[in-house]
Design goal:
- The protein is built from twelve helices and ten strands.
- A hairpin with a 5-residue loop joins strand 5 and strand 6.
- 44% of the residues lie in helices and 14% in strands.
- The protein is of the alpha/beta class.
- The longest helix is centred in the C-terminal third of the chain and has 27 residues.
- Helix 1 packs antiparallel against helix 3.
- 37% of the residues are buried.
- The strands form two sheets. Strands 1, 2, 5, 6, 7, 8, 9 and 10 form an eight-stranded mixed sheet that branches. Strands 3-4 form a two-stranded antiparallel ribbon.
- The N and C termini lie close together (11 Å).
- The radius of gyration is 24 Å and the shape is globular.
């Protein structure tokens, strides 16, 4: 897997606290000496990707794990003695789904100091001009604390076309234009990635996070609203080099059985909404590659046998040559393989992507490592 003519690409889906699974995936890839050339993500996947590409140290896998453990530590508890007792009781009885629900409501009421804070906190009274007019609110949670936490681990000076001399990992993150529904792609090979781009890719409106003005008049929300799997963006950004893809699925496409109740129906519907839908993109990429190979063969044959003293034919052939080179130099990447690394769901819960409890985060990281090692064993 060290062939420099083939780019190793890591695709990271969004999914809130489910992003800890991607942390485990990356740890396993590093431990197996697989260098990632392009890392792409949206939402929490974009945030993970930023740590991989912009790590302040030479060990982004350690930085990312520490980041996730810090998020877990920042997951606040409800202040009442009753809910504290309830949490401890549920934890000792291993009722994981109930723990996820309680963790969700803890976050909803009190936020997570490392990620987001509620807008209704009393200390915002004198800084928020709309504090006393909630009917005008367009968001409930301020997720800017996420950047303060992230800056401990990410050197944004590395996320620049010429700013990463110690690593050639390219960062691609996605968002969506609030006003036009057009996709927005932020690429460290073409622009400076800044904190506002991270806030844009994680600004999920259903979590009541606010939009971000990434440039004058361009307001962005979380890219998972359009696509939770930014593979197409990678192919568009790097259309020449062949690719080996590692695709992290926080939301499984396949289920073992039909839902048995309304809760499971909602959970399955959510998984389908955010699952990988890039099969068509992969098929189109393979089709384009096939036709480009055919054009190569035809052009080489034409060039080999072309012999004409006719000035007009020479001019026509020169035009064909120019068009051929333009196509061949800008397209032609082949997807050599795609390795899907999928998170397991033992007990479906609609609240699992807001569960930042330490045990849940650590178990998710371990699951990511396990599933990646299994996938790599299948390759060899």
């Amino acid at each position: 897997m060290s062939n420099i003519d083939v780019e190793n690409v890591l695709i990271l889906q969004g999914g809130g606290s489910l992003g800890a699974f991607g942390c485990g995936v990356f740890k396993a890839l590093v431990n197996n000496n697989i260098k990632i050339h392009i890392v792409a993500g949206t939402s929490i996947g974009g945030l993970n990707a930023a740590i991989i590409a912009g790590s302040k140290t030479n060990h982004p896998e350690k930085d990312m794990e520490q980041f996730w453990l810090e998020l877990a530590e920042g997951s606040s508890k409800l202040s009442s003695p009753l809910t504290d007792w309830l949490y401890d009781y549920l934890n000792t009885t291993s009722l994981s789904q109930a723990i996820s629900i309680l963790s969700f409501y803890r976050s909803a009421l009190h936020g997570n100091e490392k990620v987001f804070v509620p807008r209704w906190r009393p200390e915002h009274l004198f800084t928020d001009q709309e504090y006393l007019t909630p009917n005008k609110w367009t968001y409930l949670f301020d997720h800017s604390p996420l950047i303060k936490t992230l800056e401990k681990y990410v050197d944004f000076n590395k996320l620049h076309p010429n700013g990463n001399p110690n690593s050639n990992t390219r960062l691609i993150i996605t968002a969506v234009n609030v006003l036009t529904a057009e996709p927005l792609t932020f690429d460290s090979a073409k622009q400076q990635i800044s904190p506002k781009h991270i806030l844009a890719t994680t600004g999920y409106p259903t979590y009541y996070f606010k939009w971000v003005e990434v440039e004058k008049g361009v307001y962005a929300w979380d890219g998972s609203l359009l696509s939770n799997t930014p593979l197409r963006e990678v192919i568009d950004a790097s259309p020449v080099k062949d690719k080996r893809i590692f695709l992290v699925e926080n939301y499984p496409k396949n289920a073992d059985k039909l839902p048995e109740n309304i809760h499971e129906i909602q959970h399955r519907a959510r998984d389908i909404m955010f699952s990988d839908k890039t099969v068509h993109n992969v098929q189109m990429s393979k089709t384009i590659t096939y036709h480009l190979r055919l054009i190569d063969d035809l052009y080489n044959m034409l060039e080999r046998y072309f012999d004409s003293n006719d000035k007009r034919e020479k001019e026509n052939f020169a035009k064909i040559t120019k068009r051929y080179k333009k196509v061949s130099e800008k397209r032609g990447a082949e997807i050599k393989s795609i390795h899907y690394i999928t998170r397991t769901e033992e007990s479906p819960s609609l609240y699992e992507n807001a569960d930042f409890s330490r045990d849940t985060i650590m178990n998710s990281i371990k699951d990511g490592e396990l599933k990646t090692n299994e996938a790599l064993n299948d390759i060899t």
